[in-house]
């Protein structure tokens, strides 16, 4: 199904954002925004600084409350839920700054996020059963860290720390994962590996990524949504939006 050409009433989407608006003291940071994300889709949101990209993710994950509009995740309205309820519903969000535990190993960081032990006390003292160990290994493999399971997290490279954080979300099996500039500060090799990683993880989930690196965008995006002043300026394939004169004028030409 073509997510871009979707109708508001369609309920087959993983995520349906409709008429989403938030005002900060009268300033509309997100203004009547509608878009739809399909199963297994990688959607990339691009746009100039201040366009409202991060605010959209904040609205979806419940960190910011919408002034009006709707966010439906598998037909469940999210705008009335609290942040932790949205996580529980299956939406994971990675912020720009890594929030890993530097003095714990990769294994322990992943284990800590296993749904059974949500707080530090619970996670460190619950018995490591075979199910947890196998899940940690499976995720570590997915994020290229299977040989680093016993390494302390502060010894990892910047890119590996970013992957670990993605892993800490993956271990909770979200159906929708949202990543804010996942390759910022990464080497060329790490960017390539991250693109492959994203492809792997969308085998059974959808991903929304905010990104500025157009080469990376072209590599990963199924659809691109271009935002400007809280609204959608253009939508389509990376190839299509790259050639759009409006997009070149407000963003790519700078
Ligand atoms: N809590 C808030 N209170 C007031 N204004 C806010 C708040 N959050 C965001 N804004 C404003 O909303 C606008 C959109 O910000 P946002 O961070 O979403 O943009 P962005 O597209 O993610 O930009 P960047 O690429 O620089 O990260 C900006 O003008 C910002 O100052």
The total tally of domains equals 2
Question: What is the C-alpha radius of gyration, as a whole number of Å?
Answer: 18 Å
- The CATH architecture of the largest domain is 3-Layer(aba) Sandwich
Order of helices and strands: EEEHEEHEHHHHEHEHEEHH
Helix content: 25-40%
Largest sheet features: 6 strands, mixed
Average of pLDDT: 90
User: Number of helical segments?
Assistant: 10
Q: Report the principal-axis shape.
A: globular
Q: What is the third-level CATH name, the topology of the largest domain? A: Rossmann fold
GO molecular function: ATP binding; ATP hydrolysis activity
Protein name: Urea ABC transporter ATP-binding protein UrtD
Organism: Marinobacter confluentis
Domain ABC transporter: 15-254
Describe the protein.
This protein is of the alpha/beta class. The protein has two domains: 1-90 and 179-198 and 206-254, P-loop containing nucleotide triphosphate hydrolases (Rossmann fold); 98-173, no CATH class. The chain contains ten helices and ten strands. The protein has a six-stranded mixed sheet, sandwiched between helices. Helix 3 crosses helix 5, helix 3 runs parallel beside helix 6 (158-170) and helix 6 packs parallel to helix 7. It binds adenosine-5'-triphosphate. Adenosine-5'-triphosphate binds at residues 24, 29, 47, 49-55. Keywords: ATP-binding, Nucleotide-binding, Transport.
């Amino acid at each position: 199904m073509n997510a871009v050409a979707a109708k508001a009433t369609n309920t087959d989407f993983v995520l349906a954002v409709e008429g989403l608006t938030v005002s900060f003291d009268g300033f509309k940071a997100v203004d009547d925004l509608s878009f739809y994300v399909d199963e297994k889709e990688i959607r990339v949101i691009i746009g100039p600084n201040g366009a409202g990209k991060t605010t959209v993710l904040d609205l979806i994950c419940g960190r910011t409350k919408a002034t009006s509009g709707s966010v439906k995740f598998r037909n469940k309205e999210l705008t009335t839920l609290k942040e932790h309820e949205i996580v529980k519903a299956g939406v994971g969000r990675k912020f720009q700054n890594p929030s890993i535990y530097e003095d714990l190993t990769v294994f322990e960081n992943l284990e800590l996020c296993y749904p059974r032990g949500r707080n530090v006390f619970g996670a460190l003292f619950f018995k490591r059963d075979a199910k947890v160990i196998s899940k940690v290994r499976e995720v570590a493999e997915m994020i290229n860290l299977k040989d680093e399971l016993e390494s302390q997290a502060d010894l990892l490279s910047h890119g590996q720390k970013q992957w670990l954080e993605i892993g800490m979300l993956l271990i909770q099996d979200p159906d929708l994962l949202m990543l804010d500039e996942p390759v910022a500060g990464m080497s060329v090799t790490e960017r390539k590996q991250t693109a492959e990683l994203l492809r792997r993880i969308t085998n059974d989930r959808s991903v929304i990524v905010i990104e500025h690196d157009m080469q990376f965008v072209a590599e990963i995006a199924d659809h691109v949504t271009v935002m400007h002043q809280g609204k959608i300026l253009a939508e389509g394939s990376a190839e299509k939006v790259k050639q759009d004169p409006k997009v070149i004028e407000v963003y790519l030409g700078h």
